[in-house]
Amino acid sequence: MSTSSVSPHRNKLFLMMVLELFIWGAWLPLIWGYMEQGLGFTGEQRAWVGTAFAIASVVGIFFSNQFADRNFSAERFMAFSHLVGGIAILSLYWVTSFPLFFALMLIHSLLYVPTISVANSLAFANLRNPTKEFGLVRMGGTVGWILAAWPFYFILGTKEGMDAIMARNSIFLVSGGASLLLAAFCLTLPHTPPRKAVEGDAEGGFAWLRAGKFLALPFLLVLFIVTFIDSTIHNGYFLVADGFLRNVGIPDKWIMPVMSIGQIAEIVTMLMLGWCLGKMGWKVTMIIGILGHAARFAVFAFMPNSMEMLILVQALHGICYAFFFATLYIFIDAAFPKDVRSSAQGLFNLLVLGIGDLAAKWFFIPLQAKLTVDGVVDYRTLFLWPTGFALGAALLLAVAFWPPKELDVPKDVKH
């Protein structure tokens, strides 16, 4: 890539993504053990905390993403959201009662979740060649997650005793501090003004309504359905993989490092994404991403005694995420009008972070319980279900996803 083709704001956008995912990665891996062992929350209470992101993804469609599209510049929306959301997550350091804990987590989620979509939209608006450059920028999110999650896990996650458990509340100090830092940093990002409703807009200026009406286009409806299936599989993996890897003999302290191989692979795949899109186009790239899930679950189902394969197949996570989800975000930016892009990103994030996550819990948890007899899980049958779903989603995309020619990957990405 020549210097002249590099967007002048790319480094700032990369750092924005680092901090964006650092905030989430700082608290997510350790919060569950802290709530159970440190705070004594019941399973139902922990489940409520876990639904905060799903609730926020639904609410964000109707309110937060609407404001980002129609009323506030993207960088100021990000700054406000991370300021207030950062104060909320920071406050959890001192909170021990469930009602207040849940309320603060919900406030944080309501403000944080929409920024994932808005960060994407802000990046797309300020990149000269989003198809080529977004993978490089979004790679910052993976780097940020690793920088937050890994140190906490290796310093606190593997230690025993109540002092170590209670020390895990420092995740909220770090996450909140990063959020406040990002709030200030967002004010230095390039100005990205809101897009006013187009003249004659039948939806009365509601960006989310106009974005939703685009699902009447067959290629976008097919992509929406496939995204729901893939999101359910993706979220389901994290529900069942931990127990499976423990069952096949991987020690607890090594489960996260083994699963983190996928995050390293994600960095490599993000670096290659622009080139791959240029060579293969939207459809083939996304199909490969979906088939990555099928291959990973198939290895789990048919090769549970091959420790080497179980570890190596974790690298497919990079393909699953970059080739489908990152490509999805790039495609949404190309397919939707500028005045509804944040809402369109939020519409699909509703599946990725909300409905897909809930569907995974409603499907995989009861299925695993049904397949458990005397404490022994029939993992082969369990894993054949998502393998079949992934193959079905890939087939649906192959035969029914036909975006118009004007949305083809630009030719200059190929060089």
Automatic annotation (TrEMBL):
Oxidoreductase in keyword set: no
One function term, GO molecular function aspect: uridine transmembrane transporter activity
Membrane topology designation: Multi-pass membrane protein
InterPro entries with a match to the protein in the record: MFS_dom, MFS_trans_sf, Nuc_H_symport
Name of one Pfam family that matches: Nuc_H_symport
GO cellular component: plasma membrane
Transmembrane segments annotated in the record for this chain: 12-35, 47-65, 77-95, 101-124, 136-156, 171-189, 214-234, 254-277, 284-303, 309-332, 344-363, 383-402
Superkingdom as given in the UniProt entry: Bacteria
Domain Major facilitator superfamily (MFS) profile: start-end pairs: 216-415
Swiss-Prot/TrEMBL keywords: Cell membrane, Membrane, Transmembrane, Transmembrane helix, Transport
Subcellular location: Cell membrane
PROSITE patterns in the record: MFS (PS50850)
Signal peptide: none
Record PANTHER family: BLL5896 PROTEIN, NUCLEOSIDE PERMEASE NUPG-RELATED
Protein name: MFS transporter
Organism annotation: Phragmitibacter flavus
Lineage: Bacteria, Pseudomonadati, Verrucomicrobiota, Verrucomicrobiia, Verrucomicrobiales
